Amino acid sequence: MTTLVRTRRHHQALKLSLPPPIPASKFQTPMYSKTLSPAASLGSPVIKNLFELEKIAVLGHGNGGTVYKVFHKGTSSIYALKVLRFNDDSDRVWQQATREAEILKLVDSPFVIRCNSAFYNNGLAVGSDEPGGADLSFVMEYMEGGSLQDLLVSRKTLLEKEISEVAGCVLLGFRYLHDMQIVHGDIKPSNLLVNGEGKVKIADFGVSHVVDGGGVARHLLLESCMGTCAYMSPERFDPERWGGGGDGFAGDVWSLGVVALECHMGRFPLTRAGQRPDWATLMCIMCFRERVEVPETASPEFRSFVERCLEKDWRKRATVDELLEHPFVN
Questions:
Q1: Is 91 a catalytic residue?
Q2: Annotated active-site residue in 186, 204, 247, 252
Q3: Domains of the chain from N-terminus onward
Q4: How big, in percent rounded to 5, are the helix, strand and coil portions of the chain?
Q5: pLDDT tens sequence across 258-302
Q6: Does 82 carry a binding-site annotation?
Q7: What is the DSSP letter of 211?
Q8: In 163-314, at which residue ranges do the beta strands (DSSP E only) sit?
Q9: CA–CA distance, 154 with 146 (Å, rounded to integer)
């Protein structure tokens, strides 16, 4: 309990400065039909119809969707609206999106992005059988600071104190998710969002998984190429060498280690400067490089923290609870 209180107090002191979002000039076509109905909700007040929202700006694009900054007409509250669009041949993407909706209905943590409501454009509830071609929308908590990726683009590197704050927030999010048997599976700077108080929250559960009773993340081995390969752990690249694909939880810890080192170095840390982190390059690194090197500019505490995260054998890698007690975080 002392660690949790201390970590939360430290997080309130982190202030991050980011570039402004992309302005929304004109939205050419309407996004929604009158058949919209709420499918799931967390938070209060619950938004019951997307026509309660007014678009203000485009926050970003990617993976077949767009994120908008929106204004709720009834309460004057600001939200982020994530709209995913699907083609008839995008079954795998649709499965990822519906899995994300199901997970977002379950989670409620100050270190995980909150979802107010989820909608299909045909009125079906999230989790129902869905014919091809439908869109899916999430009304999400608005994070004023943007993403950690935005911050790195703006500032290049972070101070170790700031990296410690980021790591502490993510680890507390991991503890909550892992206790619920949820593996995130795609931790990277663009999936870590920052609010106005400087608190970092975990977002984007499109490739997340629920672990079964045997400790194996369902679909994780079959879908090992899902997520962002640059931040994948060795056991996901080479399950045979590392005794299977791991439990998934250790893979989240590896990804956090890569993110922390990237924040320190100002670039992707596993490859040489200017080298593309493609699948073949990363496979060679995982198979032939003994360990990830931490720059000499790092403090002993930071070096130790990263090395415990980036232990190649997932069975020897630090656990979330161990890392929350690590001197670098505390």
A1: no
A2: 186
A3: 21-141 (3.30.200.20), 148-324 (1.10.510.10)
A4: 35, 20, 50
A5: 999 999 999 999 888 878 888 888 888 777 777 788 999 999 999
A6: yes
A7: B
A8: 182-183, 192-194, 200-202, 209-210
A9: 11
